[in-house]
Each structure stands twice: as C-alpha cells, then as structure tokens.
Amino acid sequence: MWMGNDDYRQALTAAIEEYEGLGEQRRSIDARLAHLAQTIATLNRLLGYTSTVPLGLTDACRLVLRGGLPMTPVDVRDRLLAIGVDLSVYASELSAIHTVLKRLNEAGEIRLLPRAGGKSAYLWQVPSRAVAIGPEVAEYVRRGGQFHVSMPPAGRRKKKR
Known about the structure:
By secondary structure, the chain is mainly α. It is built from 5 helices and 2 strands, in the order H-H-H-H-E-E-H.
C-alpha cells in the first residue's frame, strides 16, 4: 500500500503531539514526586521517625531545590533542617551546602540567579525539552505547512543513467 505525503505528515504530526504530551506529563510527575518526597520527609520528622536510608547531602539538596522556588544557600540549609536532614556531621553546614550547590550548578542541574546585594539564589533547572525536530518545524507541521523538498512517490523515481 502506497502512503502519500499527507499520510506521512499526519503520522509526523501525531508523533510530535504525543512526544510533547509525554514530555509534559514527565515534567508534571517529576514535580509531584519532588513535592511528595518533601512532604514525606517532613511528616516523618514530625512523627519522630528516622529514615533507614539516609539521604546524602547532594540528593537532599536536589530534593529541596526541586520545589521550584529560587533558594539561597541559607534557604537550602533551613529547608534541609526542616525535613530532618542531619547537618551536624559537617564542620560548616553552609560551606558544605555551598560546595554541593556549586557542583550542581556546574553540572547544569541547577542555575545561579544573581540578586542585588550579592545574595545569589539557585533554581532547579527543569530538564530541557528533548525534541527530534525544532519547535519552529513542529509548529509549521501542525499548521499544515508544506515542506520545501518534494520527493516523487516511491517506485516512480527515475533511474540514473
């Protein structure tokens, strides 16, 4: 069965829309998981439960930053203490937190937001939207645009001599 350009275009449009929808669902689920993890940690602390699997400082910082609000190192420390992370093992809590935040920033997991007065904040870097084609092309296809390259139907191509 021969498929024409319209069939390919419809299939491409459907694939792009599904891809974008699934990416949006993933971001929503990631945000909800981060929120629930913080809620669970806070409730555990309020009930006096101790975690059998303690979080490392890096993972704990990731957890509090996934809340989506810009946070200074002091905000991060205060939130870590509020959810029951034991920072007493560090000679300098803020120094350890600064080091973790610097490394997460260098790795692209968070980004630095300069602020007036020199107190910079950090913000969780939402994972970039991975797409197989650029947003301009996706929008063009959605609107029913024609590609500038047209290929003759399969089986009807001229043979080179």
